[in-house]
Design brief:
The protein is of the alpha+beta class. Helix content is about 20%, strand content about 30%. The protein has eight helices and 21 strands. The strands form five sheets. Strands 1-2-7-8-4-5-6-3 form an eight-stranded mixed sheet. Strands 12-13-16-14-15 form a five-stranded antiparallel sheet. A three-stranded antiparallel sheet has the order 10-9-17, with no helix packed on it. Strand 12 and strand 13 form a beta hairpin. The radius of gyration is 21 Å and the shape is globular.
Length: about 350
């Protein structure tokens, strides 16, 4: 989000990190005001590591929430240039690594050009696929398209959600806000703002200067923004319970935030949210069958899913479900679904 002073590129690529001419003068003193920062954007789910052998085209990508919402898959230009847009494609979903096995087969997916991006549309993601899941794709020219997931050595629980396949923790922090913390409304707003707008490191930690976090929490909480004093109190409580910690970062001359601090840049203390990550226990996997290779069910904690950047609003049913679960969890404050999010209730997913 942005006003006269604040530059923040955390809103999933909707803003450019580099300043406009209007901003250039105000950025000269950015390092004196940690409320005005630039946060580098995540990989947007676009194809990477593209290899075209002439017979096959291989690429990798990370699944994003919008892919799951719309049943799409990013496609590199090398494939878009050779595939017929109206021709349906056959898809095979694989469980990769040491024991290759077919998970699903689908027909009827088609290519669609959307601006400068080409997407495969009409596919159905498996229920276990989460935002951040890493996918390896291979297209045999004019034949099948294979999408492969790499299983983890052992399942893990990331912020209350069971994960069985290789993933990018940064994307999960952004897009899989687990609904398992008993916090009040202001604390929740603080955590959401930090996870959605903060600088993300490779461990999935989200970091922001306190002033930037405070300003964004206020601006994003319309129509009833909390008072600055309440936000400061919420931050203090989250720190005392260990849900937030302090880390040292730095801001360069252009206002770009980095952590850990870089030599020659202005040091700045950062509030840090670290997602919980642990090995999955028997209770987490109580519905799993066999040695983890069978298609079994697992519990997915209720969670928020960001949809505002897609121009969508939560349904009446999602708002009612959030209100009911929020109240049942004993959370303080109004039980109102945060603006720009929908709510997915706790459920069982097939594996």
């Amino acid at each position: 989000m942005r006003d006269e002073e604040l530059l923040c590129n955390g809103c999933h690529g909707r803003l450019q990190a580099s300043p406009t001419a209007h901003d250039q003068t105000s950025l000269e003193n950015t390092t004196d005001d940690p409320a005005r920062i630039v946060v580098a954007e995540l990989d947007g789910g676009l194809p990477r590591s593209v290899v075209n052998t002439g017979l096959t085209i291989d690429w990798k990508f990370n699944v994003r929430a919008e892919h799951l919402l719309h049943g799409t898959c990013p496609v590199p230009s090398e494939m878009a240039d050779r595939a017929a847009p109206q021709e349906p494609l056959e898809l095979t979903f694989l469980r990769g690594r040491h024991r290759i096995r077919t998970l699903d087969e689908q027909k009827g997916a088609r290519l669609r050009v959307q601006g400068d991006e080409t997407l495969l549309t009409g596919l159905t993601w498996q229920p276990f696929v989460l935002p951040g899941t890493r996918v390896s794709a291979q297209w045999d020219t004019w034949k099948k398209l294979r999408l492969a997931y790499t299983p983890l050595d052992e399942p893990v629980v990331f912020d209350g959600t069971v994960v069985r396949y290789a993933f990018d923790p940064r994307i999960m922090t952004r897009e899989l806000a687990a609904f398992d913390a008993r916090v009040d409304r202001v604390e929740e707003l603080v955590l959401i703002a930090l996870r959605e707008l903060g600088y993300l490191d490779e461990m999935g930690r989200a970091l922001l200067p306190q002033e930037a976090l405070t300003r964004n929490t206020i601006e994003r909480a319309h129509p009833q923004p909390p008072a600055r004093k309440k936000i400061d109190g919420a931050v203090a409580r989250l720190l005392s319970r260990g849900m937030l910690t302090w880390e040292q970062g730095s801001i360069n001359a252009s206002g770009a935030l980095h952590c850990p601090a870089r030599r020659g840049e202005t040091p700045v203390p950062l509030l840090c949210y670290a997602p919980t990550l642990r090995a999955a226990e028997r209770e987490d996997l109580r519905n799993e069958a066999g040695a983890g290779h069978a298609m079994s069910a697992h519990r997915v904690a209720g969670h928020l899913m960001r949809i505002g950047h897609l121009g969508k609003e939560a349904s009446t049913e999602a708002k009612a479900a959030y209100r009911e679960d929020h109240a049942r969890a004993g959370l303080a404050g109004p039980h109102v679904l945060p603006r720009g999010y929908t709510y997915v209730r706790e459920h069982e997913r097939g594996m």
